[in-house]
Amino acid sequence: MALIRNIVRTLCLLWLMWWSPVHAAGPDKLVIGVFAYRPIPVMEATWASLGTYLQDRLHGPQVIVRFLTQDQMQEAIAKSELDLVFTNPVHYIMLRSGNRLSGAIATQQSLENGQAVAMFGGVILKRRDRTDIQTLADLAQKTVAIPRAQSMGAYTAQAALLQEHKVSLDRIQFKELGQPQDNVVAAVLAGKADAGFLRTGVLESSTVRRAFDTSQLEVIAPRTEPGFPFALSTKLYPEWPMVALPHVPPDISRHVTAALLAMAPSDAAAQAAGIYGFTIPADYSDVENTMRLLRMPPFEVVPQLSLADFASQHSWTFAFALLSLGLMVALILRGAWHNQRLHRASITLERTLGELDQEHKRLNNIISSTHAGTWEWNRKTGEVQFSERWATMLGYSRAEIEPLSFEKWVALTHPDDVPGARQQMRRHFAGEIPHYDAVFRMKHKDGHWTWIHTIGMVIQRERGTNEPELITGMHLDVSTQKRQEEERILSHTVFRQSHDGIMITDCDNRIVQVNPAFTQITGYTPDEVLGQSPRILSSGQHDKAFYQALWAHLHKHDTWHGEVWNRHKSGHVYPERISMSLVRDAQGMITHHIAVFSDISLQKRLIEELQYSAYHDRLTGLPNRNLLQDRLKQALSQARRADSGVAVLFADLDGFKPVNDMYGHQAGDELLRTLSTRMNDVLREGDTLARVGGDEFIGVMSGITDTEGAELVANRLLNAIAQPVTLTSAGALVQVSASIGVVLCAGAALQHTESPDALLDAADETMYLAKRAGKGCVRIQTWAP
Asked: pLDDT for 750-759, tens place per residue?
């Protein structure tokens, strides 16, 4: 009994060794070969984070993940380039038959319809109204739809079942429909196939997604397995194994195993792969037996007739011969057997004692390295035995907390966590799950709550009732890991909820992750950009020198901030404010690039509008007084250089106020806009017309050196203003005039004119002379400073 307990404790501890740091010296790098059954960019997006996860847990070697085809993996193993192999069960058996491989160290747990399963099988289905198909034998001479013949769960498992029931595969017409497996369901429902093969879980997924009316379907040869949640026809087979090659040091192999078994569904690696995690290594002998039964590679060669084959064909004759031979040999060997029995028993006892001593030492080493606390609960007496480490996790010495009962254990547990822990225990007692596994809070001596991960199993049951009698297991303080998990969840939430776009690329600058805001800003979905270069966003508005300077600054300072023009999926370009940074590993090598950016198109437009409003009249769109001042200064400077002249024209509308009062401000605004357009149209290109008041306008005309030229321009303006205007907003036809004053600055006067304001004031005064002269006329003065 003590040996059984030690073995159980060892298995439990190996499950959770990841909580402790790796102290033993290991290799500089650890290379994992992953079978690439899908395109490499998709595999990298799914499984690359597994390497990051293991590197964070091992705290030692650099973990490298390589994605390889079957031939590439065989070659890499032959060259000793791999330390670990992660592949499907059939490929694992193929590799094991031709290479020196150890057993699996962990088995993947899939996430099927929200449920964790480490096994899968095959389903054979038909339409419920096909009463001619009731048994496996009825599939002969029928058409059966399958996804593909290489699928373990959707062909091989069912084929083996048919072989075991003496149903010849040659008498069945198989129709390959390809992926997805929903094609098989559709074919059966449509009557295009008599039956179909599916992997377990697909039928339930179709029901949840309401892809088909699965109530019309029925499973052939249904069977149930304890704890397995899906419809099933065949035996169960284990999921993908993780295999350590023989040259990997045992301590590294153990810690990799512990890290894989500790992976939680919320970990980034599990979420990226869409799995629940890993569990203890499964037995893959059923996979090999099935491959042998179906003569699959490498077992496709038919063996020579063996003694067993001969015996099965000539059973009675062979049995009589063996019996006769056995009686003779027995008489001869009986005496020798008695003489050697005692000697063998002595050697066996000595070897067993040595193994027990080694097992005891190994168990103590594991307990010491993992900082685990052990416990043993006698359910019949209620007594709980525990180690010193179990007590120190809660701040007590063993003497302070003894005697410990199950009731005291429950009292130390947080009330909110007790129901869940009890539920896990009841499920284990009922045989629904192989181990009792729970995480809960226990009260520390100083008052705070400590997160505890416990795992255990029933090792003794009462005879007759089969009730659990003795349960043993371990405790680990996982408070630090809980905090880290909460931080990871918070970081992931920030990543998902951020209004800024976030893009992460690998060391080769291939996109490996984007957030929802990235899609909102760029128009590209994750499926469209994962594995692509960020050049897919390039607008073409930056030259090669721009990007060379950007990357040089980024590699020198690890950060870069600035504005970049990129192109939306729809084709339009937009400005971004972007911050880029590098992520380096412990050796200083670049592992990732992170870009955080936002679309600043709106800010750009607002700035442009503000700049335009600062220099233009909002109603007419003409330059305002600020821009007029600048244009007048430029005109004076150009006139001095060209020895030319400048005319400043001041126009005030006559009769505008009555129109505004009679028809309202909307009609007045319409009149101002119409007259502004007319006046601007009669001026020359290069001249400036500005609105400086309610009905006041100033014009700056370059190249005018005499009063005749100034009068010509002023009269054109008078004629344009005097034309009748139809006011759409008021439904009226109105007519106004203007009084215009012009100041001509030319010759020597230009050299002595420093302030534009003096010219503007003079033009204003001249306009009032025109208004007093009877309105609708022009007055011109020559500027003399």
From this structure: 877 777 888 9
pTM of the prediction? 0.42
Determine how β-strand 449-461 pairs with β-strand 436-443: antiparallel
In angstroms, rounded to a whole number, what is the distance separating the alpha carbons of residues 647 and 413? 94
Residues 6+ apart with CB under 8 A from 308: none
How big is the chain by its Cα radius of gyration, in Å? 44
CA–CA dist 87, 317 (Å, integer) = 47
φ, ψ of residue 654 in degrees (nearest 5): -100, 125
CA distances (Å), 572 to each of 518, 577, 597, in order?
Answer: 16, 17, 17
Q: Which residue type occupies 334?
A: R
Handedness of CA 286, 292, 295, 300 (dihedral sign): positive
Structure tokens, 229: 């949640």
What crossing angle do the helices spanning 756-772 and 625-642 adopt, rounded to 10°?
A: 100
94-98, 140-144, 328-332, 374-378: range with highest mean pLDDT:
140-144
Nearest C-alpha neighbor of 173 from the set 146, 197, 127, 141: 141
How would you classify the pairing of strands 62-68 and 29-35? Answer: parallel
Which pLDDT tens digit goes with each residue over 666-703?
Answer: 999 999 999 999 999 999 888 999 999 889 999 999 99
Q: For 147-190, how does the pLDDT look when each residue is reduced to its tens digit (9 = 90+)?
A: 998 899 999 999 999 999 999 999 999 999 988 899 999 999 99
CB atoms near residue 415 (< 10 Å): 9
